[in-house]
Design a protein that fits this description.
This protein is of the alpha/beta class and about 325 residues long. It has helices at about 5-10, 25-40, 55-60, 75-85, 110-120, 140-155, 175-190, 235, 250-260, 275-285; strands at about 15-20, 45-50, 65-70, 90-95, 100-105, 130-140, 195-200, 215-225, 245-250, 265, 265-270, 290, 310, 310-315. Helices cover about 35% and strands about 20% of the residues. Helix 5 packs across helix 6 (about 140-155). The protein starts with a helix and ends in an 8-residue tail after the last strand.
């Protein structure tokens, strides 16, 4: 998906293009290049190079490279933006995310909201930049426990396994390092006082006993004060795994304040049947993509993909301003 944000626009405007995929997932990019070659794209117009940091640094400093687009982690993206800019390149970089969904418990449609939350949090094993990472429940703490229980029961229905097999909902994480980091973050959050309502660690899949499998996991921070920073690692870290953090606040204003105080600003969502609440949220929230009863508000290409705050570097968003 991501190369298709950039390559068609670059080629259509008369440029040649160098595509450098992640060293962990090169196959889709190689297939894309193969298909375009089969369709008659001239040799050298679309080029795929594989490698790790040395390859990246070579592109960032090469005099023939005029502009760079990147999607990935903050550490890599900030390096790419800094080095590329210092070498005279135009750079746009979409970085990390901690996407928040707010649920007004007194008027959101419960059944559809629970299904939307579970799909957005645990689909693709949480390994997508618009995955839902945090749910803020608005209302009484006593009422929120019923919502948490419903999310847990819906998440338990998901099947963990080889993503190529029929009926599997949650596949493996990308690497051993990824699952080790996710499991360490889960444990750290528990050690610092969070309640693990659903623990996906220790999943064993028949025939893939050494796989990097982590089942849906739900971390509950209970009621938080919007005037104090949230320091639990389940909230502060971009885990990039099927891990959902839930917290409860009394009012929509508290939910907006917490979301806006988060350093990331990729996407967010509000679940409500109130037009007034939706309008308030839309105008006061600080995130690039805003969904009303839509958990992953990724725009179609004629709207810009516009992360903000620590989720982007550069002056031009993908698809333009």
């Amino acid at each position: 998906m991501i190369p298709l944000w950039m390559a068609p626009l670059s080629l259509a405007t008369g440029n040649t293009y160098v595509l450098k995929p992640s060293e962990k997932t090169p196959s889709a990019s190689m297939l894309l290049a193969s298909y375009l070659n089969d369709l008659g794209l001239p040799p050298g117009v679309l080029n795929v190079v594989n490698g790790s940091r040395d390859t990246v640094d070579g592109l960032l400093t090469h005099p023939d490279i005029k502009a760079i687009s990147f999607v990935g982690s903050n550490s890599a993206g900030e390096h790419i933006h800094d080095v590329g800019s210092k070498n005279g390149k135009r750079v746009q970089a979409n970085l990390g995310a901690k996407n928040h969904a707010t649920i007004l418990m007194d008027d959101a449609d419960r059944v559809s909201t629970i299904k939307a939350i579970v799909g957005a949090a645990f689909g693709a094993a949480g390994q997508r930049c618009m995955a839902l990472s945090v749910v803020i429940l608005v209302g009484d703490l006593s009422e929120s426990q019923g919502w948490v229980d419903d999310v847990v029961e819906e998440a338990k229905k998901l099947k963990v396994g080889n993503g190529f097999q029929e009926g599997v909902d949650v596949g493996p994480l990308i690497s051993k390092e990824a699952i080790e980091r996710a499991e360490a973050t889960i444990q750290s959050s528990i050690d610092e006082g969070a309640i693990c309502r659903l623990d996906g660690r220790g999943v064993v899949v028949d025939g893939f006993e050494d796989g990097n499998f982590l089942g849906p996991t739900l971390i509950d921070l209970n009621c938080v004060n919007s005037n104090e920073p949230i320091t639990n690692p389940a909230y502060t870290e971009e885990i990039f795994a099927p891990v959902l953090t839930i917290l409860t606040v009394p009012t929509l204003d508290d939910a907006i304040k917490i979301t806006n105080n988060n350093p990331y600003g990729n996407g967010c969502a509000l679940f409500t049947s109130s037009g007034a609440a939706a309008r308030k949220y839309q105008f006061e929230i600080e995130a690039g993509q805003v969904g009303i009863n839509v958990p992953i508000p990724v725009p179609l290409p004629f709207f810009s993909f516009t992360g903000n705050k620590a989720s982007i570097r550069g002056d031009v968003n993908f698809y333009g301003k």
